[in-house]
Amino acid sequence: MKEADHHQDAIIATNLRKTFADIVAVDSISFSVKRGEIFGLLGPNGAGKTTTARMLTGVISPDGGNAAIFGYDIVHTPIRAKQRCGVVPETANAYSDLSAWQNLMLMGELYGVPKHYAEERAKTLLGALGLLERKDQKVQGFSKGMKQRLILAMALLHEPDLLFLDEPTSGLDVQSTQLITGMLRELNDGGTTIFLTTHNMEEANRLCNRVAIMRKGEIAAIDSPERLKMAIERLHTIEVSFDPAGTDDKLASLPGIKSARREGDKWMITTEDVDSTIHAICAFGVEHQLKIEVLRTLAPTLDEAFLRVTEGGSYEP
Amino acid sequence: MSPEHIIEQAKRAFAIAKKDIRIYYAKGPVVIFGLFMPLFLFLAFAAGNRGLSMPFLISGLLAMTVFFTATAVSPVIQPWEAQARTLERLIACPITMKTLIAGDMFASVLFGIGIAIVPLGIGLILGIIPIHPLLLIAGIILASICFSSLGLLLSTPATNVPSNIMMLSSLLKFPLIFISGVFIPVEQLPFVGQVLAVCSPLTYFTDIARYCIMGTNTFPLPVNFAALTVFSVLFTALAVRLHARTVSRRI
């Protein structure tokens, strides 16, 4: 099913814009997703995430700009672009009057997958997603988690190079969430590029190589989760404790340290340069024959970064 | 083969038709509007018969059944898909709008052709045997295509409520029954009625059915076939264009 090509970028969006009546849902956004990347699109409700995903998957047409999937323009060559993608839309359903197997076979036919191969692949996917025993049952009897796993299987039947997922684990039980995120990791290890929109910061933090945060139709920040977390806070906190505990206040005079205060048996140190401060603390410990018991950086969480950016805070990569 | 190739897209249209047949044929509104409605209209008219012959009534029943049935499935498939939230998944697949419309139309055409067996069977039981069976089959196929495309045109308003489309489609279908020579021969209609009859695709199929069953016709046979062909092409082209424009508003 794979088509050989030399495009390094799975997605290139350039000045992508969509309006609904007077409302600008997506305001001329540009970004690219590299082949093999897991890219997360984050943002509050109404930020334009789903509209962006729908434009990239060819479900709705952009009013301006363009997007290419492995070099195929989604407006001018939509069939070739869509053939390379698997899609798990946010609100979509499998056909509830059909069985899980019939739904998968339908997808096989719609993506031009040879029947014998589609059958083999359907068995493998249903087995991996814990649905093989229910394959001949109508989908209307499935739980939400089972339906979502089936929709993922439907999106993967033709072995897409790029997988779009819109809120794939929203409202699911822990078992289904773990099955889906586990499978996403495996797919990515096998070379599948993943484009994920989510509200779940923890999911984005754990899965994504890079994330973009959308705010009012624009991309407010785009970077790796770690860099994003670090970049929104110029002053970082380092927690350290020594044995013996009675270290004197010389710690506060180390280069790069903005402040150091004692909290119980620990020191809370603020700095602009985490790397050089950690080196200085280690050297301080060696010099004063102190054993470091705890040393950790208290970086902001992705939730904090998300809130800061979506509330209008500045972001400088 | 490229996914854009016409044969590949035709295979995908067939997959859509197969799905439609599996899912939508047994739906209540389709059975009620497609089968029971024309049957009850026929019985009501037959009971109050003003001396019209049974072949006249059977040819009218045939025209009405094919018309009602072919336009019963096609208008409601997309609103149903949108309501069941399966439409977005379908549109994200590598198929064109033409493929999607062709698939829905094919399912509807098969339903129209299949249902024609019922009035023809009733006719055979009553001893009415078509004089030109091959022409009749050709007429039924062409009429099913034409009425299915009309049905798809009726479903273009961007609503996700199938009953809204059913209402709109009934508003058009019932008047057409009375101006298309189904119960009253076109020649007996007032002048305004005759002008309107010319604008109705049902008129031409009713005329074909009359010719094939009774041997009488109002319009020349080539005109009937040409009119149905022109209506089919027009309705299909408009349906593809309008669905492409409105589909994003359904999602």
TrEMBL record, chain A:
InterPro entries: AAA+_ATPase (IPR003593), ABC_transporter-like_ATP-bd (IPR003439), ABC_transporter-like_CS (IPR017871), ABC_transporter_ATP-binding (IPR050763), DrrA (IPR005894), P-loop_NTPase (IPR027417). It is found in: Cell membrane. Residues 11-241 form the ABC transporter domain. The keyword Lipid biosynthesis does not apply. It is a peripheral membrane protein. Pfam families: ABC_tran. It comes from the Archaea. Its main location: membrane. GO terms for molecular function: ATP binding. Keywords: ATP-binding, Cell membrane, Membrane, Nucleotide-binding, Translocase, Transport. One of its GO terms (cellular component) is plasma membrane. The keyword Transmembrane does not apply. Belongs to the ABC transporter superfamily. Drug exporter-1 (DrugE1) (TC 3.A.1.105) family. This is ATP-binding cassette domain-containing protein. It comes from Methanocalculus taiwanensis.
From TrEMBL, chain B:
This is ABC transporter permease. It is found in: Membrane. It is a multi-pass membrane protein. The keyword Transmembrane applies. GO terms for cellular component: membrane. The chain crosses the membrane at residues 28-48, 54-77, 105-129, 135-154, 225-244. The keyword Secreted does not apply. Residues 20-246 form the ABC transmembrane type-2 domain. Its main location: membrane. PROSITE patterns: ABC_TM2. Keywords: Membrane, Transmembrane, Transmembrane helix. InterPro entries: ABC2_TM, ABC2_TM_bact-type, ABC_2_transport, Nod_factor_ABC_transporter. It comes from the Archaea.
